[in-house]
Every structure is written in C-alpha cells, then in structure tokens.
Amino acid sequence: MLASFLIGLAAGARALTPFAAVSDAAAKGALPADNGAPSWLGHPLVSAGTKALAAGELWGDKLHSAPDRIVPAGLLARVITAGIAGAALAPRNRALAGGVLGATAAIVAAYVTFDLRMAALKRFGQTPTGLVEDALTVAAARAVVGGVERRAV
C-alpha cells in the first residue's frame, strides 16, 4: 500500500506522469501478478496514449497560460489518475483502498507542491522550476514503479 500512497504523492505534482509510468509497467507485464490494475491499463494503445499525454503535460506546464494544479479540473485529473494508479499498485483485494489512498495523497500533494512551486517561481522563474519539478516527478514515479516491479520478480 506504500506504493499507492507514493504514486499519489507524485501525481500531486503531475497528474499524468505517474499514471503513464504505471500504465507502461502494466503493458510490460511488470506489475505483481496479484495487482489491482484494470485490464485496459496495460493495453499498448493506453500505454502509448498516457505517455503522449504525460509529455504534453510536461511541456504545457511551462506555458504562462497553464492553469494551476489546484483548480477543480486539475484536482479531478489527479483524483482519477492517482486513484487508478494507486489501485493498480495495490494487491487486487485492496485495490479500492489503494485507489483512495493514491487519490487522497495526490490532493494533499497538489496543494503542497503548488505552494512550493509558487515560492520557487518568484525566485527562479516558471521554466526552471517546472523543469526541476518535472525531473523530480519522473524520478519519483520511476522509483515507485521500479520498486513494485522488483518485488514482482
């Protein structure tokens, strides 16, 4: 259940990157056999689509017109993606709890990372802070999913 919580924290910063990492692992068959992932999550088209959407989110975040992550649409995206990813990383019999844990962590992390980003933005600017946040989120998502993959072997 720790993985569900941690992937939710990562989703607080970027809604789609952690979701794409979990979908990619599902497509590769790298999630534990007794996972709570919906069957469609590992479909090659879903995996490719989530990666494309995550790349678009990483790019779009640097635009001045990008909405804040704490607007209702941004929070809803985090609830959905972190909920599915959290469920996928939980054992099948605890998928609902994993989903709730992931979604809840994402909401809390969205507010925390928003405040941190706004403080850093004043000093370093939008693009540099966004790139650092991107790197941290990608690394966190990969680490969480990689830890689950290692346990599956």
TrEMBL record:
Span of the signal peptide: 1-20
Origin: domain of life: Bacteria
Keyword terms, alphabetized: Membrane, Signal, Transmembrane, Transmembrane helix
Segments crossing the lipid bilayer: 96-114
Protein name (database record): DUF4126 domain-containing protein
Organism: Caulobacter flavus
